[in-house]
Amino acid sequence: MERLGLEVDVVDQSVLERTTSRFGERGIVLPTFHELAHPMTVARPVRAGLDGVGADDADPRNLFRIHWHNDATRVGYAEVPDHVVLGPELTGVEATIVVALADRFPMIGAHKVLASYGCLAPRVITGQFDPTRHRAIWPSTGNYCRGGVAISRLMGCRGVAVLPERMSRERFAWLEAWVQDPGDIVKTPGSESNVKEIYDECNRLAGDPTNVIFNQFSEFGNHLVHYLVTGHAIGEIFEDLQARSSTELSLHAFVSATGSAGTIAAGDYLKEHFGSGILAAEALECPTMLSNGFGEHNIQGIGDKHVPLIHNVMNTDYVAAVSHRATDALNVVFNTDVGRAFLAARRQVPETVLRALGSFGLSSICNILAAIKLAKHSNLGPHDVVATVATDGAPMYVSERDAYLARRYPGGFDEHDAALLVGEHLLGAGEDHLRELDHAERVRIFNLGYFTWVEQQGVPVDEFSQRLMPSFWHEIRGMLERWDELIREFNARSGAAAA
Ligand SMILES: Cc1ncc(COP(=O)(O)O)c(C=O)c1O
Fold this sequence. Notes:
Layout lengths: L12 H14 L6 H5 L6 H5 L34 E4 L1 H4 L4 E6 L10 H14 L9 E5 L3 H12 L3 E7 L4 H10 L6 E4 L6 H11 L5 E3 L6 H24 L6 E8 L7 H10 L2 E7 L4 H4 L26 E5 L1 H11 L2 H11 L3 H6 L5 H16 L6 E7 L7 H11 L6 H13 L6 E3 L2 H18 L4 H5 L4 H25 L5
Parallel strand pairs: 2-10, 3-4, 3-6, 4-5, 7-8, 7-10, 8-9
Antiparallel strand pairs: 1-2, 9-11
Helix pairs in contact: 1-20, 5-6, 5-9, 6-7, 9-10, 12-15, 12-16, 12-17
The site of pyridoxal-5'-phosphate (PLP) has 22 residues, from helix 5 and helix 6.
C-alpha cells in the first residue's frame, strides 16, 4: 500500500521528529482535510493570520487558502464557493450548467494546488517525506507540478517539476519564478499527451533515494482530497441553487475532463449525497476511454493516453470526447473584445457570465462543452443541474489564443468570424462522441489500465484489481479522518499552531 500513498500510521519516527521540529521553527501549520472542506471551522486566530498575506505569496499561511471558498479577490471569503451559472444564451441548452471557479485558488490560480497538498501532506505526517533530505518530484503536464512546487515551498520542502517541454510558455514563466534552483524544472520530450516520457524520467529520478516521486495518477491522496473538498464544495453550490429556486432541482451529473482523474472523485461524493451521475470527458483527438485511442491534442491538463490508477472507473456513467478544435476556437471567442461583444449583442449573454469567461481555461471550456453534450443527450430541462469546474483560467493560455489568431486570422478577427466559431463549436456541440457506460463498457476501460499499471509500472495485479470493487473506494475514505488526526498530532508536536 505504501506505493499508493495510503499509509495511515507513522512509518519513520525519526523522520517525523525532524519534520515537526523544522515545521515548528518555520511556523508552518497544516490544515486538516476537514478544514479545507469547511474553512469556516478553522480557528479564528489562524483565519485572522491570513489578513495581509497575498494570495500568491510564498507564505505557509496560504495553506489555509487551499479551498473553494476564496472570493474573486482571492483574499476574501466566499460564503458559497464562487461559481457561475450558464444559461441558454451561452450554452444553447435549457439545462442549468453551473461551473465552480478554480482560478480563485492561491499561488497558481488553479485547483491542482489542492491535489498537490492531498499528496504531500499524508507523506509528511506519516514520516515518509523528510524535508531536510528529500526532494519532492512533481510529474505533470502543467498545473499539478506548479501546485507541487508551490506546496513544497510553503511546507519548507524542495520541489522539482517534471513536465513536457512543449507546454505553454505561461507555465514555464511561473515555474521559473517559484523554483529554488533552475535545475528544479525538468523538461521531457513532447507535449500534453506524452505522459509515458514523464514516467520514464521519473523512473530515472527514482534511482536517487533522496527523490520522492509524487505520481498524481496513482497517489490516492489526490482522489481523496477531491472526493471530500471538491465534492463538498459542489454540493454546497447545488444546495445554494436549490435554496434560491422556487422549484425542485435535480443534480443530474458532475462533469470532469480527466487528467489524473483526481477531480472526478468529487463525482463519487456527489453521487452518494445527491444521486447524480458522473461524466468523464477527454479530448476527441486522444479518445482513450471512448475508443482505446491515442493521439496529440491541445486541451492542456487532460487526456494522457492512459487510465489513471485513481480513477474509479466502475462508478463512471458517461464518457464524452470534445475536440481541441472547439476549445481552441472558443478560447478566442471568450477572450477577445470582438468575441465578447458578439456574445453580448447577438446572444444576450448576461454581464455576470461575460465577466466569468476569463476564468475558463482550455479544459474548463472542454468541461462546459461536455456538459452541453450531456444536456442534449439526456434532454435536460432548466430544473436539471449539470455541475462542473473551471480548473484554471484564460490567463494561462494567452499565448495559445494569440498563436491561434495569428494562424487563422492574420487579417484580423471580426464579429462574423466569432459568429461562425460560436455556431460551429458552441451551439453546434452535438450528442456525438458521447457514450453511456454499461457494465461491459466500464470493464473495458478498467482493463485498459492494466497495461500502464501492471505491465509498465509494476503495480501488483491484486492491488490493481481490488479497484473493481466499490468496497475498496469506500474503505479508503476512512483514511481522511485518520490523516486529520495525524495532522492535529503533527501540529501539536511542532508547536507552530500554539505559537
Ligand atoms: C487545467 C487542468 N484541467 C484539468 C485537469 C484535470 O484534472 P485531474 O487531474 O484532477 O483529472 C488538470 C490537471 O492537471 C489541469 O491542469
